[in-house]
Every structure is written in C-alpha cells, then in structure tokens.
Amino acid sequence: MKKSVLRSYAKLIAQKGGNVQKGQDVIIRASLDQPEFVRMLTEECYKCGARYVRVEWSDLGVTRITQKRASLRALSATEEWEEAKYKHESETLPVTIWLESDDPDGLKGVDQAKMSKASQARYKVRKPYRDAMENKHQWCIAAVPGVEWAKKVFPNEKKNRAVEKLWEAILYTSRADGEDPIAAWDAHNKNLASRCDYLNSLGIDRLEYKASNGTDLTVGMIEDALFMGGDEATEGRGVIFNPNIPSEEVFISPKRGLATGVVHASKPLSYRGEVIDGFWLRFEEGKVVEAHAERGEALLREMIAMDEGASYLGECALVPDNSPISNSGILFYNTLFDENAACHLALGFGFTNTLRDYDRYTMEECHQKGINDSMIHVDFMIGTPDLSIVAVTRTGERIRIFENGNWAF
Amino acid sequence: MKKSVLRSYAKLIAQKGGNVQKGQDVIIRASLDQPEFVRMLTEECYKCGARYVRVEWSDLGVTRITQKRASLRALSATEEWEEAKYKHESETLPVTIWLESDDPDGLKGVDQAKMSKASQARYKVRKPYRDAMENKHQWCIAAVPGVEWAKKVFPNEKKNRAVEKLWEAILYTSRADGEDPIAAWDAHNKNLASRCDYLNSLGIDRLEYKASNGTDLTVGMIEDALFMGGDEATEGRGVIFNPNIPSEEVFISPKRGLATGVVHASKPLSYRGEVIDGFWLRFEEGKVVEAHAERGEALLREMIAMDEGASYLGECALVPDNSPISNSGILFYNTLFDENAACHLALGFGFTNTLRDYDRYTMEECHQKGINDSMIHVDFMIGTPDLSIVAVTRTGERIRIFENGNWAF
To answer: What average pLDDT does range B36-58 have in this prediction?
Structure first.
C-alpha cells in the first residue's frame, strides 16, 4: 500500500477518529502486524498536539498461551499498579485508539469458561474507572490488516496479496482511499446526522423487525432516547470524534425489558477470538430465554451468561444494505466491518449518551430509565436483503423505515 | 531456522538464563522482530512453573518518534502507576528477560541531551526500586535477530538471508546450536568458575593493561572483591542463573578512584541506538579526564556526563581472543556479543555481588568499599590480539594473566 495513502488514513484516525487535542495523552492499542502504520499514527497524534502517546502492543499468540498456561487465580488478579493505571486514565482522559488486526479465530480452543471467569474478576476492579470515563474522552476503533485475518477473508490469495487486498478493503470501506478522507467524513457525518434527525422526529415507541429467515422481533424504546450516528461529542468539553472507522450505522439504545420474539443472525460473529455462526435468539420481556448456534453454541451461551445484563439488548442499529461495506461483498469476520454492512443488535451494555440531556443524570438514573448495564457489549448482525422494519410511534402510527434491507425514507 | 533448534534456545533461556522458579513471575522485554520466538519463550517459562509471564513489547521506531516529538517534561515524568509498577516488581522479584534485536543505529540523530535529561529524571524515581532488587532476582539478556540489525551485520545479504545468518551466529556464539545446549552451558559454567578460582587465589592488587594501540592503563582492585563468571546465585534463595547468553567473560568490579592511564577502544560501541567508534579515554584518580572519538564524540561525552559515577569504572572483564564469538569473526555492533569477543571495561555502576559476603553489607557500605554507583553501566571493548595484562599481587609479585589477547595460564 502506498505510503501517502496510509499517511492520509493515519491522519483521519488521529484528527477525525480521536480528534486529539493539544496537551492530551493518547493510548494506541495494537497488535504486532503493522508497526510501520502504528509509527505513522503515533506521529500524527503528536502533530495534533498530543502530550504523550503510549503504544500498548499485544500479541494474540502470547494471549493464547497465557490463557492456557496461567492459573485462573493469576489471570483473575488485578495488581495494584494496574488499578493505579486505570485510575490515572480515568483522571487524565486520554484518547484511546484501538487498531484491530487479529485473527478472528485466533483464540479458538481456549477454555472460554476460564477466560470468562477471569474477565469477570478483573472487570469488577475496572468497572468504576470505566464508568468514570464514559462519554468523557474520545476513543476510536479502526483496523489494519493482520496476516491471519487477511488469509481468512481472502483464503485463496497468498499472504502478501491477501494483506494488500485487505488493506484495500479496509481503506475503501473506511472512506479513506480518496483524495480527501477528512472531507469525505465531514459529508458522511452530515448525512448520518440528517437520518437521525428524521428518526428522532417520529416519536418512536417500538421497532418491529421481520425477515423471511424467521426473524420476528419487537423492541421497545426509551421515551427520551435519541438515534445517533457518525460523530459524537464528549461530555463537558464537547470534543467531536468518530468512535468507529468505518461507521455506517444509525443507532439507539432500547429499553431494557421490552424485547419479544425471535431474531436470526445473518452473519457469523467473531467473539473473543472464536467464530459463532448460524445462531438465533428468542427474547421474552427483554431477556434471551433461548439460544442456538450451528457453530460455537457453547461460546454463545458463555457470552450470554457473562453477567445479568449480558442477556438483554444494549443497542439497535440501522444500516442499509446499500453501503460501501455491504457493496464490497466481503465478509470480514470482524464486527467493526460486518456490523456496518447490516442492521444489527447488541447484547450487553447500552450507551447512556443516547438519552437526551444524559449529562444531567447519574449513571444509576440512566440505568433506571432503561439503558442496559453489563460488562460486555457484543454486536451481532441481523440485516438481510428482505429485512423490513416498522416504527410504531407513540401515537400509534406505523411508519415503514426499512424495506428490503434499505432505508424506506 | 528450524523450530526444534529455536525451542532448545527458548528452553536454555528459561531454564539456565532465567532459571524460572515455580510460582515466580516473569517479565519478557522484546521488540516486535521475533513474535514466534517470544511465544516459545513464554511457553517455556510457564513450563518451568511461572505464575504469570508478562511480555512487554516495544518498538524503536515508536521510541524514536516519542523522543523527537514529546516534550522534555512529558519524557521526564514518571506517572504514579509506573512507580507502583516498580514497587510491585521490587516486592515480587520477577525473573526479567531482555531479548535484544534492535537496530544498533536505530536512534541515530535523536537529541541525546534531551534523552539523557529525561532518563536522569526518570532514574531518580526508579533507583530505590532498582537498588531493592539488586542481586535478589534472576535476570537474563539474550538476543534474537531483527532485520535492521541483521542488515548491519551482514550488509551484502538480502533481508531474509541476513536474518537467517544472524540467527545462526547468535545460536553458535550462545552455545545453543548443539544437541544439548543445557549440558554445554553446565560445562561452560564450570570452566569459567575454575578460571575465577585461580584468579581469586592470587590476591591481586592491580591490573596493568598494555597494547600496541597506545593502551597503557593501571586499575586498582578492592581487597575483598572476587572475580565472577558464568552463572550467579540470587541473594537469599540462592537461585543459580546465567545473566548473559552468551557470556565468555570473567569479571570483577574495580576500586573506584584507582584507574590511571590511557585506554583505546578496540571495537565500535552501540550506545542508546547510536554507534560510537575509534575512541579513547584517559583516566586520572579513577576518573575520565579526557575523551575522544572519531565518530559519536558528542554522544560519548553525553554518556560520561550522565551522572557523577558515569566517568568511573564499574567493571574489568577478561575475555580470551580465542572464544566462539571472536572466532566467528563477526562484528555484531551489539555489546552482548562484542563484549564477549574481547576484554572490556565498563563505565558506570559496579556489581556489589563481586564483594565477598556482599549480602552482609548495605548498598552504602558496598559503595564505601569502592564499588562505583551510577545510573549507567556501559561496556566498551579494549581487547586486541596483542593485549597483555599483568596482575600485580598484594605481595608485589607480577603475574602475567593475559598474553597476545589470550589467557596466559
């Protein structure tokens, strides 16, 4: 991939994704796959005025060995210095950038129950610091190709060619392959905002999903929740940033307890380094009461049992079938992309900032209003070319907002 | 390189280098060059019974950008959580393994004065924790090839071939390419120990170095200091480990204040990612009073001025010209190897455990006895094929211990 193109992509992530402010710290979390790009991104963050950019490398191979060999007790421990680090981050509010590149199947075969228990134990210590940062700092998830991931997406290509093709696909779907990616994102953000404005004007009480694969699901909304999409603003300082690159979705957090019916996943899901495929869920009073998968069913159940909130919905996202990711025809086996190719739902925590005037409420009050709380947030795709969604308004009007997988307005 | 050979090398580092004990933590510090080997080493540490192995990756390219772009203030800061981490390590005493692979010239052009000031500031916070760990935990420095390093050592080879040749050179010089590297190291440790026994029986008052390049230096010894070589034991638990792989040296820490004369370096020195070459130093009353270099003179002066102890000697090491590293004929541009191909000295801190019964003294008392203290410890090579060393004993006897660059006994 040409250096100048990669440089533009690095700028996009630093300026639009993280919108790094003068004097702000940045943390970049990356695997070892694209060190040259990580260096570029580091430099672009400094050019935005970052005080200090910390790159935290990790390796899925080492994680795999660690999860296998270390005791549950060792994996569950949070050392004092780690908690001090969480505290430091919750106080200094660094921009956090994740560069995804890992093998979607790289942790296959790892003891998922052990891994869950360890995460649960560590999450208990981490949660107050995560809550303290929520909505208050910029963050961005973007992607770079790793060899194993590229080989999974393009199994018939040789390593180097597969990586090159995955770079092309990432840059195309991220609207980062043109002359001026930043201008492209300005236009894109504007478009998503106008979709939200329309939806928010309807006074939606519930969404009814239907597709020929058996999906027949009704999800209730919170009265003062708003659809969001594209860029967001941090609470307080109001710094605008794009949390996902790419992003095609318009989303909302539904009301906990108001989902009823069956929904079928339309794409495989890579969760914790392992693929779950061919699955469906049945909801009653908002909660998953039945779950089946052709592949990875045990892991699916593990996921839903992570904590109490893991079996409730945290997000309803609308993505037209006609989007760059969907049009690329590529199955990425990575949620950042696949979720933006199709309508999706998420199990786990909801987004408190989807509430109107959310900054006037405590976290507790947000949850009382119906925003779900959990340690997980896992998107899964439900969009199909024949998906229809009807919005039932609080005045009882039925408005078709999705038809044949695309916006009906 | 064959996987089985690399696996043996990983075992050697885990078992002989670090001698990881059951329930002990391990920290592996590595660059991004050989993730597959780092995974093997991680696994071998767990097989020894490690409680938790933490791999801390870093990248010289990112370091370069950070040193250039971040302010001196940001570079000098130690965050509370970092200090908590030092404290944790000083209390839990993990085995620490460094896997060197960086470009010896990878930080060339970086502002060395800024880098020194930042190190000095950070060292102040770190020092008490480093002191608290001294002699109490196992550590090991070993090497794996990085592409830039390999291209520097084998400039006429293509990348992949250069890396392959550097693997071969590392494994050969580390006595890790045979059937049973662990047995080879047992024999080697025994041989080095018998050299030490002989030297320690002489009652040496001072060493006189002479070579045709102009070297004419006398270095005084501490009365109850001992020559050491090969494996060492931790204080308290007495765990035997090999701090350097490879290691051919027999060494002692001289008495601060007793070096007089001139010494010429016989090989280039890579210090902080930049090469210093063609240099000589003049000592008076133990202190460097004159320093010249054909290349990197400013950096050499920076190094000597790091702190008060940086201009005094901390180590005298004897290495025969007839050793695997020297016989390989390769200039590695890496101290771990080059120091083991030739007699060398070190500027900066000495080793308190070279004192007989060192564990009965406080750090302060060790320094009063003449062990130098500093934040740096930089070896530089002085061995030549015509180097002679005479040991003058406390009874006035003159015993030739080195002749024509090799052991004279």
So the answer is: 98
Whose CA is closest to A221, among A187, A255, A265?
A: A255
Q: Choose the closest CB to A88 out of B46, B47, B81.
A: B81
Smallest Cβ–Cβ distance between A62 and the set B39, B82, B85 belongs to B39
pLDDT band, very low/low/confident/very high, at B272 (cuts 50, 70, 90): confident
The bridge status of strand A406-407 relative to strand A398-403 is: antiparallel
Residue by residue, DSSP assigns B335-365 as HHHHGGGS-EEEEE---GGGBTTGGGS-HHH
SS3 A389: strand
Query: What is the CB neighbour count within 10 angstroms for residue B15?
Result: 19
Q: What pLDDT is stored for residue A273 in this prediction?
A: 86
The β-bridge relationship of strands A232-233 and A240-241 is antiparallel
For chain A, give the percent of residues with pLDDT over 70.
Answer: 100
User: Furthest-apart CA pair in chain A: how many Å?
Assistant: 58
pLDDT tens for A255-266 read 999 999 999 999
Please give the residue of chain B at the shortest CA–CA distance from A59: B35
Neighbours of A285 (CB within 10 A): 11
Phi, psi of A286 (to 5 degrees): 85, -15
Whether B143 and B170 have beta carbons less than 8 Å apart is answered as: yes
String of DSSP letters for A28-60: EEEESS-HHHHHHHHHHHHHTT-SEEEEEEE-H
Q: Does residue A326 have a pLDDT over 90?
A: no
Question: What distance in Å separates the CA atoms of residue A387 and residue A325, rounded to the nearest whole number?
Answer: 17
List b or e across A272-282, with b for residues whose CB sees 16 or more CB atoms inside 10 angstroms: bbbbbbebbbb
Q: What's the DSSP call for residue A405?
A: T
Amino acid at B388: S
Q: Which of A81, A87, A88, A144 to mutate to test the interface with B (most CBs of B within 10 A)?
A: A81
Say yes or no: A162 contacts chain B, CB-CB below 8 A.
no
| Residue A101 scores a pLDDT above 90 | yes
Backbone angles phi, psi at B393, to 5 degrees: -85, 170
Start-end of H helices in B266-394: 297-304, 324-328, 335-338, 363-368
DSSP string across A244-310: BSS---EEE---TT-EEEEEE-SS-EEETTEEEEEEEEEEETTEEEEEEEEE-HHHHHHHHTSSGGG
Q: For residue B25, give the H/E element and its range.
A: strand B25-30
Of B62, B74, B84, the CB nearest to A51: B74
Predicted ipTM of the assembly: 0.90
